[in-house]
């Protein structure tokens, strides 16, 4: 049986010479800068007030399973204080970044607590 030809590897892109400084200018970077969310200018207290509004308005059934939020000592990746939601069932705190508008993890935690509570009963 005859062997076929081997495929040649494709290059993943042009290889740049690390010694080459032709395109580099001092003070300019080609790497994208890390962008913080639009709420970066808000204070911890303003973010807490926003979370309290969410809890009061109860736009989701997730907030019914938690006590009013507090400021946590834990920091997010932008070095801002996170919002702590205390579960009414297990009394554990769930820390969420203030810019995270999804309540999916709060719902999932509350559902797990309800299942555990039903198993105990």
From TrEMBL:
<feature type="compositionally biased region" description="Basic and acidic residues">
    <location>
        <begin position="44"/>
        <end position="56"/>
    </location>
</feature>
<feature type="compositionally biased region" description="Polar residues">
    <location>
        <begin position="28"/>
        <end position="37"/>
    </location>
</feature>
<feature type="compositionally biased region" description="Acidic residues">
    <location>
        <begin position="16"/>
        <end position="27"/>
    </location>
</feature>
<feature type="compositionally biased region" description="Basic residues">
    <location>
        <begin position="1"/>
        <end position="10"/>
    </location>
</feature>
<feature type="region of interest" description="Disordered">
    <location>
        <begin position="1"/>
        <end position="75"/>
    </location>
</feature>
<protein>
    <recommendedName>
        <fullName>BED-type domain-containing protein</fullName>
    </recommendedName>
</protein>
